[in-house]
Amino acid sequence: MSLSSELLAQAKHLAAKEPRRPRDASLRRAVSASYYAFFHLLTAEASTFLVSGNGRGGLRSLLARGFTHSEMSRASKAFSSGYGGLPAHLQAVIPDPRDFPPGLSAIARTFYQVQAERHRADYDLSYRLTRKETAAIVSRVEWALAEWRAIRGTEGARVYLVALLLWERWKAR
């Protein structure tokens, strides 16, 4: 089982824990774990795409450490607008808009929205989550991970993976 799968399972467990009166900490950790399930899936996918081959796990791990939450969020916001919202130099590397599946925009949007929810859950102590809100966040991540598996082989998805690492350098073009 991958770290991403384990984190999503943990998020589901925490969201359903304490059936009568869920602890605030359980709900907050469920949101955080679901975000990190998403984060680690995308960084693992990107690292595997960028560094292929057997026996290269160490290099892939080093590459995965180069991803930052803020850059991934900014890239995701841009991709959430769809093909037409991308800068021209990225549209040029995905010349056929059909290679940018509609689900990619929704995945990217979900990533940056769940990241914002994770920030709120982790740092805003006045924020009170409900079980229903928490379950909805966990479900959105679960959907995004399943949708990712369906589109991961498209050119748009590949460009998205690289953009998660290089967005700031690319946008300066």
Number of strands: 0
How many angstroms separate the termini? 39 Å
* Percent in strands: under 5%
> N-to-C SSE series?
HHHHHHHH
Low-confidence stretches: none
Note the main sheet.
none
Rg, Cα atoms, Å: 17 Å
Question: Which percent bin holds the helix content?
Answer: over 70%
Instruction: Quickly count the helices.
Output: 8
- The secondary structure category is mainly alpha
Mean pLDDT: 93
Shape summary: globular
How would you describe this structure in keywords?
173 residues, mainly alpha, 8 helices
Task: Explain how this protein is built.
The protein starts with a helix and ends with a helix. The protein has eight helices and no strands. It has helices spanning 3-16, 24-50, 57-64, 69-80, 88-93, 102-123, 131-151, 155-171. With 173 residues, the chain is mainly alpha-helical. It is globular.
Short description:
With about 170 residues, this protein is mainly alpha-helical. It has helices at about 5-15, 25-50, 55-65, 70-80, 90-95, 100-125, 130-150, 155-170. The protein is globular.
